Hints:
Structural class: alpha+beta
Distance between the termini: 72 Å
InterPro entries: Metallo-depent_PP-like (IPR029052), PhoD-like_sf (IPR038607)
Protein name: PhoD-like phosphatase metallophosphatase domain-containing protein
Organism: Salinivibrio sharmensis
Strand order of the largest sheet: 12-13-14-15-17-16-18
Mean pLDDT: 91
Amino acid sequence: MENTASLPLFIAGPMLRRxxxxxxxxxxxxxxxxxxGTVSVYxxxxxxxxxxxxxxxxxRIGERAWVVLHHLRPAHGFPVDVPLxxxxxxxxxxxxxxxxxLLYDNEDTxxxxxxxxxxxxxxxxxxxPHHRCEDALVTLDAQLxxxxxxxxxxxLVMSGDQIYADDVATPMLQRIxxxxxxxxxxxxxxxxxxIVDCRALDTHPDSxxxxxxxxxxxxxxxxxxxxxxxxxPLPIFTSKTVSNHLISFAEHxxxxxxxxxxxxxxxxxxxxxxxxxxxxxxQRERYQQETLALNAFRSGLTGVQRLFAHLSTYMIFDDHDxxxxxxxxxxxxxxxxxxxxxxxxxGNGLMAYWLCQGWGNAPDNFSQEFLTTACQSAYQPIDVCxxxxxxxxxxxxxxxxxxxxHWHYTVPTTPHLVVLDTRTRRWRSESRMNKPSxxxxxxxxxxxxxxxxxHDSAVIVSAAPMFGVKFIxxxxxxxxxxxxxxxxxxxxxxxxxxxxxxxxxxFRHQRTPTNYVILSGDVHYxxxxxxxxxxxxxxxxxxxxxxxxxxxxxxxxxxxxxxWCDRVLFSPLSPLNWLTKRxxxxxxxxxxDTPGPKRLVNASGVGLVELNDDGSPHSVSLLKADGTRVxxxxxxNT
Length: 638
């Protein structure tokens, strides 16, 4: 058993989450029960709001770990457009004492600013720890370190794949297993599974590199053309990298702690970090490459934690936060949710998402009933809560998360910020079990339209681009026709006629905003489009701005080939455009200020968008991980 006294107070955080004129939300993970201390917000030396540490909502995830959310809401709100600061004092120790690395030069406490208007937004997605490219969030932190607080981005939007639960490097999985032991993270028991509980993964021969053998083997869609051709339907977990797929709730939470702060890495150093004995020579070589990539990732985490401590951060899931191709078809859903073990794995990922991402996005979205179920499912010592009760309460929370339908949220900024859930409220195909579902169903799209009413402009966050690269969408359509939509991730807004036509109708509606900025990620390359509705005198204006990934890239030269085909086949005068669902939309691609004819930027980076007062983009750029910047200037008619 680990000595609690030897553990640092903070494992992760404090992370600045939902922050508006009326609220400041802080998310942290502590190694002590949050019963002594205070959380305070200041303007200079003036105290604006304070609450006891114990007054926050907390969730115990293990014997030596608590997730704590502090939601400060003073009666008269907070001042805007001025530097503010916050502190967390525990047993007379302030953040400057417990976490001095969180502070920029000349800071005594972390500073932040609540803007009157959100006109400067940083955004992106897809942060893959062992990918060979650099982490762009480290670069953004370095930029903030030399910029006055009032000139920082107003907020950071992370539009999916904050973790890769389905693609975990073996040395990362070793650290996950070790962190579970160090913090005594919650154990859980499985039904109809090849393992009894989470702890069995420590010694199971298939725990490393061979988890595909542990995952449910029930097949998903039936009747696809490729299946009839080759005789093999697709599995439930379709990722090509399921060999280390996360399974338990504790594993998912440990992954978050390892990608958001450096402390967990120091706690998991040791002689156990050796290639597992069952690895082949090629797997051992890959292990060494992954170790080098993870060491580079680790070196930037101090800066990333500092960035999260200063910049209000909003998140939404995409598929890899849970598993690749999550809810892609009706057949996939039926296979996944009718199998108790796969249902638990998906539920564990969603439960960890709520705890580490969703909770801080919009605390008021979660009812007292939801929080009560969560509290009952938290870690309890075995002498306090018996095995049957622990299993029952954990499953109850999994079911609560699986049926929850309010992961989407809005932020009362100007322009209005609308963050979409494109994963759990799908428009399911009625024609074929293996046809891709729409990203949002009718009811969800009507909720979306309602969120847009009475606003002159809006910033919409959609994990997948609403308007993507047409040639790549054609490839996805061909794969769907062959009955294998998961082969090329055939998930785009135009793949389902119901959701596509409803979405385009919303943009054409007279009572919705005239200026839409759509921020997306997912695709591992960056681009910008200017969009208008054809044959409309007073057409609303739309801008599709995609930045992906923070730490990921699309394979080259495949992207170059796809872009060339798109340029040739879908040029502005091409008749093929009239065969697409977007034929009533005039889409003009912005050229980045880079050498050559490319319009897709294949580099890890953070998107930066500055908006005019009417919500239209003043500037669109990509801060690349190497510190250079690519701009997407508006085309001018000469």
